């Protein structure tokens, strides 16, 4: 038997002639790729030739297999490992996987957009001189019924622990509270350690006259309605100190007299499952 008359190994039991198939070179051209890539996909078990010549080992492909090749390359461009692509092709689940991947990529893009907005706002605050009215807005805050816990030697890096602690104590006592809570700073200077702090949850009603016995260090109090300059902060808590220092610069430069200690109103609970760029805090500067 001559090479021209050689038989062809048929992978799917088809008796089609070679003339209706594409050589590997032609198939690569149709797919706009290289012969090397087509061979590589064959070796990895991703795209087997429709026929292989028994004598020459030439690979032959059906035109419809170009669609399979493009699906493989498409998934690979999404970062899907080749080993996983083979599994997805076997169980015909590539569409489901790509849908899940699209959702994941969309979330990643949204998170990057949040990060961009945060860093843009932070840069403008820290490095641009703005009019006071473009930094703060005036607001009447309160009144609030508070359940509080005071610390004489607190640390800034443990604020979420203290916030959770006072919220858990309020829950133990059966108090009706909001998701908002307050951190009050008795010290006007930067004190990452040995800071005097008050942590409070905002109660939905006045519990102070109900005769509730509380642990030492805890107490009820009412914060009156307060006129204040307010800065709306959204993003990473790690930059709080830089933001506060910059805001105090605005306060001093404009010779504004503060009436009482500054405080934060956290709009989300410390255990909320959010992006770090979604946490919102009102930075309150009480004024006369």
Tally of separate helices: 8
The amount of beta strand, in percent, is 15-25%
CATH topology of the largest domain: Multidrug-efflux Transporter 1 Regulator Bmrr, Chain A
**Major sheet: arrangement of strands:** 5-10-12-11-7-8-6-9
Q: Please tell me the total number of domains.
A: 3
Quick recap of the structure?
It is built from eight helices and twelve strands.
Summarize the structure in words.
This protein is an alpha+beta fold and 288 residues long. It folds into three domains: 8-92, Orthogonal Bundle (Multidrug-efflux Transporter Regulator, Chain: A, Domain 2); 98-128; 132-286, Regulatory factor, effector binding domain (Multidrug-efflux Transporter 1 Regulator Bmrr, Chain A), CATH 3.20.80.10. Helix content is 36%, strand content 25%. It has helices at 24-30, 35-43, 65-77, 82-91, 94-127, 132-135, 159-172, 240-253, and strands at 8-10, 22-23, 51-53, 59-61, 137-141, 144-154, 177-185, 195-203, 218-223, 226-234, 263-266, 280-286. The strands form two sheets. The protein has an eight-stranded antiparallel sheet. Helix 1 (24-30) crosses helix 2 (35-43). The model is unreliable at 1-16 (pLDDT under 50).
Layout of helices and strands, plus pairs?
Layout lengths: L7 E3 L11 E2 H7 L4 H9 L7 E3 L5 E3 L3 H13 L4 H10 L2 H34 L4 H4 L1 E5 L2 E11 L4 H14 L4 E9 L9 E9 L14 E6 L2 E9 L5 H14 L9 E4 L13 E7 L2
Antiparallel strand pairs: 1-3, 2-4, 3-4, 5-10, 6-8, 6-9, 7-8, 7-11, 10-12, 11-12
Helix pairs in contact: 1-2
Keywords:
alpha+beta; Multidrug-efflux Transporter 1 Regulator Bmrr, Chain A; 8-stranded antiparallel β-sheet; 3 domains; 8 helices; Multidrug-efflux Transporter Regulator, Chain: A, Domain 2; single chain; 4-stranded antiparallel β-sheet; 12 strands; 288 residues
